[in-house]
Write a structure and sequence with these properties.
The protein is an alpha+beta fold and 241 residues long. Helix content is 50%, strand content 21%. The protein has a 6-stranded antiparallel sheet with strand order 3-2-1-4-5-6. Helix 1 packs across helix 4, helix 3 runs antiparallel to helix 6 and helix 3 runs parallel beside helix 8. The protein is elongated and about 70 Å long.
Length: 241
Amino acid sequence: MVSRGSGGGRHRAWGTVCVLLGSVLLLGAVAGLAGIPEQVRQERAFLAAEPCPDHAAGREACLRTLPGTVSATERRSSRSGATYRVSLEGAAGWSAVVRLGAEPLGERLRPGDPVTISLWEGEIAALDRDGVTQRLSGAPDFGPQVYAVVVMEATVCGGWLLFIGLIAVRRAGLMAARGVRAALPPLLLLIPVTVLLPLLPALLARNGDGAGPVGATLAAWAALEALALWLLRGRLRLPPA
């Protein structure tokens, strides 16, 4: 018989933490799924937006363009690549600071360059320089697809945390006596596969807009996850206690 000493209590403790974290992620994924229709609405409104009339309020759902000038640029490097911190100035003392990727404008802008600034609901949505446009975080374009990826990843990671946490709680004594790997199914291949799967349908739908591509992304992800779990179902079997 497997003894249940202090080691078992330690495994129950981290297993409980995994259960709680997994439950929070799954609840967040459900809430995020409910928010996808609003993301789709915002993207459609942005893509169909007309130029703002002169009397429009600052946060009205239209595109307002302002002339501006680049007052300063700062390059910042990271493992994911270079980003640029660009300071902008406009009429009547208007100013703002935005972050850009290197392409298509980030590495080309210089202090003194004139730019056209596009505002969407009061946020900077895009910069244009000589016909070259770069969209910023204020633009909801492709937002639903990114939002769907976050929901899918939260679902997968939450599910795995909950699954592993429940095993740790139920098999704490076995883990203490024989080690963690003895009590867990061999998940080293299955977890990375299922965590990476949400990226595939999202990449295929990255150039779409509206509810169609988002729905197709979620459906394709669910089908791929089900197929992966079925093909690798043997790895989910627990070893005998």
